[in-house]
Amino acid sequence: MKITELRELSEDELHSKEGELKDQLFKLRFQHSLGQLDNAVKLRNVRKDLARVKTILREKSKETE
User: Which one, of 22, 19, 7, 21, lies nearest residue 57 by Cα?
Assistant: First the structure.
C-alpha cells in the first residue's frame, strides 16, 4: 500500500487498517512457522505496511497536540 493512499485515510480508518494488518501478520507468521508459507515476501510487505500505518497515526496525533 502506498503512503499517499494511507495519508488520505481518517484516523478511524487507519486504526481499523492497523488491526487488519496485525491479524494478517499473525496468520502469516503462523503459516511460516508451520512451513506452509510459500512466499516469505508477503510477511515483509505486511510488516512494512503496518509500520507505515503506525507512522501516519503517530504523525496525525502529533498534529492535534
Answer: 7
